[in-house]
Specification:
With 104 residues, the protein is an alpha/beta fold. It has a single domain (3-95), classed as Glutaredoxin (3-Layer(aba) Sandwich), CATH 3.40.30.10. The protein contains 4 helices and 5 strands. The chain has helices at 10-14, 30-45, 61-66, 93-103; strands at 3-4, 20-25, 51-56, 74-79, 82-88. Strands 1-3-2-4-5 form a 5-stranded mixed sheet. It is globular and about 30 Å long.
Length: 104
């Protein structure tokens, strides 16, 4: 299951030592809701290898601003605390897997 990341737990998540994938979305966003099952599947598949988290841009506004998220859905790929890739808009499971595999 994907972790919910907030302004309050962001530092702890980033200190995990694992690559981190953050799915930025919002309740009112149809494409975000459509991608939610894919994100959950990826969280299960990569459990223990990559930390996959979701962030509601309205609740995690500081995090969204830090990664310059202007549109949702946006998926940010982070390795060693540094953003290495970004996907804006809806994406297929295969496209996201390729980007996650590049983190490993």
């Amino acid at each position: 299951m994907a972790l919910t990341i907030t302004n309050e737990n962001y530092d702890a998540v980033m200190a995990s030592g694992q690559p981190v994938v953050i799915d930025f979305g919002a309740e009112w966003c149809g494409p975000c809701r459509a991608m939610a099952p894919i994100i959950e599947e990826l969280a299960e598949e990569y459990e223990g290898k990559v930390l996959i988290a979701t962030c509601d841009v309205e609740e995690g506004d500081e995090i969204a601003a830090q990664y310059r998220v202007r549109n949702v859905p946006t998926v940010v790929f982070i390795k060693d605390g540094v953003q290495v890739d970004k996907s804006v808009g809806s994406a297929s499971k295969e496209a996201l897997k390729a980007k996650i595999d590049a983190l490993l």
